[in-house]
Amino acid sequence: MLLTLEFGGGLELLCDSVKIHTVNVYPQNKAEKLSMRDLLSWVRTNLIKERPEMFMKGESVRPGVLVLVNDCDWELSGQLDTTLEEKDVVVFISTLHGG
């Protein structure tokens, strides 16, 4: 499944400073649908190059990371259970800033 992933607010630093990734991700365990839970696991394994704890806590994103699926807050679509479709755009933005 072709997806566009965008990282901002400093999260791109965890992915070799690349902000936009066009990736192919497939459902896990012979599932028919790809969920955000599957995608986050894939991102941790394949895109995060350093300090994954800055992006994820357990199987979800850390508090302070805004997740948008096609410009809609994932909290309105089921968070980890959100079903993704071909050509969806998923944006991860850190709302926490150092000082």
The domain tally reads 1
SSE topology string: EEEHEEEEEE
* Major sheet: 5 strands, mixed
Structural class: mainly beta
Low-confidence segments, given as residue ranges, are none
From the alpha carbons, calculate the radius of gyration and give it in angstroms: 13 Å
Helix content: 10-25%
- Report the CATH topology name: Ubiquitin-like (UB roll)
Question: What is the oligomeric state here?
Answer: single chain
Range of strand content: 25-35%
- Based on the structure given, which CATH architecture is correct? Roll
In brief:
The protein has 99 residues and is mainly β. The chain has one helix and nine strands; from the N terminus they run βββαββββββ.
Q: What labels would you give this structure?
A:
single chain; 99 residues; mainly beta; Ubiquitin-like (UB roll); five-stranded mixed β-sheet; globular
Verbal overview:
With 99 residues, the chain is mainly beta. The chain has one domain: Ubiquitin-like (UB roll) (Roll), CATH 3.10.20.30. Helix content is 11%, strand content 33%. The chain contains one helix and nine strands; from the N terminus they run E-E-E-H-E-E-E-E-E-E. The strands form three sheets. The protein has a five-stranded mixed β-sheet, with no helix packed on it. Strand 4 (56-57) and strand 5 form a beta hairpin. The longest helix is centred in the middle third of the chain and has 11 residues, at 36-46.
Write the layout of secondary structure elements.
Blueprint: E1 2-8, E2 20-24, E3 34-35, H1 36-46, E4 56-57, E5 60-61, E6 65-69, E7 72-73, E8 83-84, E9 89-94
Parallel strand pairs: 1-9
Antiparallel strand pairs: 1-2, 3-8, 4-5, 6-7, 6-9
